[in-house]
Design brief:
alpha+beta, five-stranded antiparallel beta sheet, 4 helices
Length: 189
C-alpha cells in the first residue's frame, strides 16, 4: 500500500457542515444509532462518485488472481471465469492471462463493472464464490498508481504488485509535460 501521506483528502463532511447535530438515540438492537431519514437516497446508489470513471472504461476493475503452477487454482479460476461469463454477461470480462501481466504478479483475469448496482451485485457474489483465489478491486480514475494502491480493496490475500510500470508512466508524462512547456516558452520568445 502506498504512503497515505502522499495524497490529499477532502473532508468527508464537505457539504454537510451546516446540518443539525445527529441524535444519540439507539435503535431497537441497542447498539446501532437511529439516523434521521431524508426520504432521498444518496446519488451514490445510482452513479459512481467523482472522480471514478462513468464511461466506457468502467468504474471499477476486479482482477482475480491464481497461481499458474497450482493446478487446483488454475482449474478453479477457469471454472469461475466461465461461471462469471454465464451469470454476469452484462459485465466486461477479459481473457485469462496464464502469466504475469503489467503490475499483476501472477496469472489473473479481469472483470469491469459500470454501475454501483453491478458493483454491489458482483462484488458481493465474488466474496462468496471466489474460493481460494484473491481479488484486487480498484476504481478507475486518472490516478492509476493511487487506484492500485491507496484506493484498492482486496478480497483474500493481498498480492504484491509491481508498481514500477506506474513510475515509468509517471516519469514519461512528466518528461512530455516538460517538453510541451519548453515548446510553449520557445513560441513566446
Amino acid at each position: 500500500m502506498s504512503d497515505p501521506a502522499l495524497y490529499e483528502y477532502p473532508s468527508p463532511l464537505a457539504g454537510y457542515e451546516h446540518l443539525p447535530s445527529l441524535p444519540d438515540e439507539k435503535a431497537s438492537d441497542g447498539k446501532s444509532y437511529v439516523n434521521p431519514q431524508t426520504e432521498v437516497l444518496s446519488e451514490a446508489y445510482e452513479k459512481f462518485v467523482d472522480p471514478i470513471d462513468k464511461g466506457k472504461r468502467g468504474g471499477f476493475d476486479i482482477h482475480i488472481y491464481f497461481y499458474q503452477k497450482n493446478e487446483f487454482q488454475k482449474t478453479f479460476a477457469h471454472a469461475l471465469w466461465t461461471r462469471i461469463r454465464h451469470e454476469f454477461p452484462e459485465l466486461r470480462i477479459y481473457r485469462i492471462w496464464d502469466e504475469p501481466l503489467g503490475p499483476h504478479p501472477i496469472a489473473m483475469f479481469e472483470v469491469n463493472v459500470f454501475t454501483p448496482t453491478q458493483f454491489g451485485a458482483f462484488v458481493a457474489w465474488l466474496v462468496i464464490n471466489r474460493g481460494p483465489l484473491s481479488a484486487l478491486v480498484h476504481p478507475n480514475t486518472d490516478e492509476e498508481e493511487r487506484d492500485h494502491t491507496q484506493r484498492a480493496t482486496w478480497l483474500g490475500e493481498r498480492m504484491p504488485l509491481d508498481m514500477s510500470m506506474f513510475k515509468k508512466m509517471r516519469e514519461a508524462r512528466e518528461k512530455l509535460e516538460k517538453v510541451k512547456q519548453e515548446q510553449e516558452m520557445q513560441k513566446e520568445a
